[in-house]
Design a protein that fits this description.
The protein is α/β, with parallel strands linked by helices. The protein has 2 domains: 15-251, Aspartate Aminotransferase, domain 2; 253-352, Aspartate Aminotransferase, domain 1 (Alpha-Beta Complex), CATH 3.90.1150.10. Helices cover 38% and strands 16% of the residues. The chain has 10 helices and 14 strands. The chain has a 7-stranded mixed sheet with strand order 2-10-9-8-5-3-4. A 3-stranded antiparallel sheet has the order 11-12-14. The protein has a two-stranded parallel ribbon with strand order 1-13. Helix 4 links the parallel strand 3 and strand 4 (115-118). Helix 1 runs antiparallel to helix 7 (235-251) and helix 8 (253-274) runs parallel beside helix 10. The longest helix is centred in the C-terminal third of the chain and has 22 residues, at 253-274. The two termini are 27 Å apart. 41% of the residues are buried.
Length: 354
Amino acid sequence: MKKYNFSPGPAKLNDSILEIAKDNILEFENTGLSILEISHRSDSFQHILENTKENLKNLLNIPSNYHILFLQGGATFQNTFIASNINEKKPLTNLITGTWGKKTYDDFSKIRNVEKIILNNSQIEEFIEGQVIKSSKESSLMHITSNETIEGIQIRNFNQINSDLIIDSSSDIGSYNFDWTNVAYLYAGAQKNLGIPGVTISVIRDDFIEVNENPTYLNLKNLNDKDSLLNTPPTFSIYILKLVTDWMLNSGGVQYFEKQSVESSTAVYSLLEKYNQYVRIPASKYSRSKMNIVFNFINENHEELFIKKSLENNIIGIKGHRSVGGIRVSLYNSIDKSSLKYLLNFMDTFFKEL
């Protein structure tokens, strides 16, 4: 029975990727081994690693002065890893627009001195335009979470921020184009837009990598020198990342998925606004996420009924995060037109029957 997966992650994978992976789990490219068994030191895996990096460079237009690493521990590990690799003399600010940004600040502040700027969703537009809320001193580095999955808040035009940026792009990487000019370090867990759990993509500008005395796996220079092979990497997760980036490039690249995300999110938001006597969208129009659409029913009984009916119609993963409640519809790159149409028809019918 087909399920329509609109969960915040791990996300749906395109069927073609699952078919290729299924075949290679049994035997990878006539090696006599499963893809799950190949050595990370083998020529086969080295080929996968290099192709995956090349795919990411082409897909995200990564300049030549950046390095790509495939790490473990998810975005949460990056909170410790990044803070441990920034020179203490460099001023650092955390821009907090939601739950994940606050978690990053909490971890950063246990390791080093860090300022914070807290914005509610209605303040983001003014901040981006540079009109209000300045750091108390000029910041050489600023950490942002480009998409807050829990609150449904997104910052796409971060190139307007007058700082070098460290960006947690876990939930919107590969869904829009941007300029790398003010990006010092970008990282993303793969399991939303680029694959499955297990691998974290880190893209690091040359000048961010400095010599330090950190322990082995907390040492960015050490990991970069070893080209993601300091220890056994998550080989299968990297392989799926390769398949997903193959699929994205063949589908038309980021330009295609950016257009899709705009059209899909616009369709869902428009439907919600049509039935605004039943629901409220907490995020301002400027800051609304195109990846995770969060809304609340005015009548809590309607929310319970909506979740119940969605499950009956094989729609899964739309219950809001336990910390905020409500409904959350995630529109990652793998949500195709037919899945979106099915969701919209379900929602429209549900509202009409209230």
